[in-house]
What we know:
The complex is a heterodimer of chains A (446) and B (478). Chain A is of the alpha/beta class and 446 residues long. Chain A has one domain. Chain A has 10 helices and 19 strands. Chain B folds into 2 domains: 21-423, no CATH class; 424-478, no CATH class. Chain B has helices at residues 2-11, 33-42, 47-60, 100-109, 113-120, 138-143, 151-157, 159-165, 176-184, 425-433, 438-454, 459-473, and strands spanning 24-26, 85-87, 123-128, 131-135, 147-150, 189-193, 203-208, 219-224, 229-237, 245-247, 250-255, 260-268, 280-290, 296-303, 308-311, 314-317, 323-332, 337-340, 343-346, 352-362, 366-375, 383-393, 398-407, 413-422.
Amino acid sequence: MEQQYIDLYKEQQANVKMHSASPLNDLRDGSFALFERIGFPTIKLENYKYSDLKEPLSADYGLNINRIPIPVNPYEVFKCDVPGIKSFLYFVVNDGFYPVSDPRNNALPEGVIVGSLKEVGKSHPDLIARYLGKLSAKKEDGLVAFNGAFAQDGFFMYVPKNVVLDRPVQLVNIMRSDVDFMANSHNLVILEEGAKAQLLVCDHTVDDVKFLCNRVTEVFVGENATYEHYKLENTNTKTTNLSTLLMQQLASSTVLANVITLHNGITRNTIEIALDGQHCETTLCGMVIGDKNQKVDNFTSILHNQPNCNSKELFKYVLDDMSVGGFTGKLFVAKDAQKTAAFQTNRNILLSKMARMNTKPQLEIYADDVKCSHGATVGQLDEIAKFYLQSRGISEKEARLLLMFAFTNDVIENIRIEALQDRIKLLVEKRLRGELSKCEGCVICQ
Amino acid sequence: MSEELLDQVTQADYKYGFTTDIETDIIPIGLSEEVVRLISKKKNEPEWMLEFRLKAYRHWTTMKMPEWAHLNIPQIDYQSIAYYAAPRKNAPQSLDEVDPELIKTFDKLGISLEEQKMLSGVAVDVVMDSVSVKTTFKEKLNEMGIIFCSFSEAVENHPELVKQYMGSVVPYTDNFFATLNCAVFSDGSFVYIPKGVRCPMELSTYFRINAINTGQFERTLIVADEDSYVSYLEGCTAPMRDENQLHAAIVEIIAMKNAEVKYSTVQNWYPGDKNGVGGIYNFVTKRGICKGDNSKISWTQVETGSAVTWKYPSCILLGDNSSAEFYSVAVTNHHQQADTGTKMLHIGKNTKSHILSKGISAGVSQNSYRGLVRINKAADNARNFSQCDSLLLGDKCGAHTFPYMEVYNDSAMVEHEATTSKINEDQIFYCNQRGISTEDAVGLIVNGYAKEVLNQLPMEFAVEAQKLLQITLEGSVG
């Protein structure tokens, strides 16, 4: 399985490098050597115990190494705008940043850089060199190493000191291909001291072929900065969505990350947030609505490396049909990271006989003056509550929906962009009704 | 204040550290097919037993020591261990014939045999090193058809029962340490409760490791036939010594229809001195199976000793409506490391399990809870509730939780919660205010914290366990 890619790399590395953002090339050989050594992750590895990627990884995908332009104008095909949302809108088509910019984006405050790694790599090489790979290069992870070897471009965002973005930045990943296709991209987000930004990442597929997306995102949040990261995954059932989000927080920074998986084939989200400064605040939430054969695994770690930080984690799953959910929540409190308060909750509902849930909340604590807790439950909808609703004239179906909706609501409440929150409420409701398997409003999907 | 108190505790010597001079009969160190044959021969075992051992030994040679636990274990040289030691003298017929040294040992521990026998009505099957030396109350139990004897006797007198049940819960291929035990196990206890019998007394075994450089490999098999009940106690204290000792035991429990087995243990093997030198390596495989409908198995453990503890008393809930409980208090101090927890495998319908684990770490120790709850596809209406709390006393120790929940059935209810915290300053202050010293306050709070588990222990044990907690921890908080 790995061999074909190893051969491909050896044969094509000149091409890969030629068409890449130059900063990515600096790390490429190291990543490849690591990949050659460890290969793709298997379920034998503790961290991938609940993500069986053998099948999706062994399929035959096309790779666009020579960066042939894709004839699609995302602004025309993509009308999946959240109504009422005012955002700075950007696209990544497959694995490349889409170069045409929206006039709306001219309103970006001065000093803010948003663009492709390739372009910014030319204009601000020092900036990128300071951050790129600082979190990903030391990961002993097959998927990250593979990404490091093959990723050629990605999204880049830089918010300078004390600059506040008044609107969210929206990044839409569109998958467009006529053949089974694999995309690797490396995103980099930097917030300097005191900066404030929101990033909304949406994943979409346009064609009904097998896609494999392997994306690595590095986020650096400076002192006193505030960052919100929203990820909305809504693709076709043939898509394998592998994403690694690595984040570093410096002192007194605040981060909110919310990962909502509505529809994918196989999903593996690795999220690692390192609290490398004191007085950090972190909120990590997620929600999964799974049905059919979907498999979703969220592997999260919050590393309390410094004292006086607070973190909260909340993940909720609703699993129907033959879907399989996996959740790992690792809370690590380093030695001397005193006065840590870390709370984690994972709640899951199984709606069918064949649905499965594997959950593994995990605490690793080396400091004594801490308050840490985790709770995990797997169960069903509350029969008594359902009966109560029914006794008030609400049909069983509606009662179920109401309860499921209430169940997911506290994750949705953690969305601080109002328009997005409304939109997601609607999407979740539709999704729970089984009406939505594709994103509404999208011309191509219909 | 904390420094001083911490020192006091960390410097406290192992209270039960002394060696008794009893002659022991040791075979040469190392492990080979010859040694396995020799052990079997020394124990006058039948051919099928030898075959079982050899099968296990051959399998063991293909296995590697597991490394997944959150433990830092120095390389163990399995060829530098003596695999058999037995007191030379033949097993005595009455208390008078028991080695006076042994009696003295028990006197020092405050668990004198006479006292046990007369006052508490507990039948004691003493395992001193590896061979059972003394069994009391046998006759009384015999009347009811209960078999409570050493494993070797069971092999000799009840081969059909041993053949039927041995290895049926923990197969010889189960894991590295279990396989090792199958090859070289020395002795242990065998309990059989016949149909419809409620065992009138608590069955108890006291272990002591006593010969220098001897691994101890007990094997316990408890079979509770239909509608029966038994409560079994196991406790141990070990004398001080420098070299690491390997201890790999197996406990198998089989509960048939409507049967109930309660298994309690207080473990206080030598944990090593304050620098982490010496101490016992405790790798134990304990597993029970609720084979029949409505059966019940309950594990209660108080773990205070051992340098390294690797122990996961588990339950297979096969029968419908069966239930299992796991109550645990694990205390680690100095350089102790513990990776302990349970596995609950729900297979039958309407099965219930309850896990309550309390970890307390002090000094520079590492204490982990590792548990698995699996609800199989056919296990309709299964119910599990797990709670694991950790208490940290000191800023150099670690407390970890690794719970795995695998739910394959939609009618299951699985709940897990865990907390980690330290003793609240306010609580200590409150006690101080009322004239209770900090040291006593900590003891009070820790005992209160562990109360839920200690309450599950039989009377005699609860007292000892409370004392042990106090000894291990008093004052180790600031």
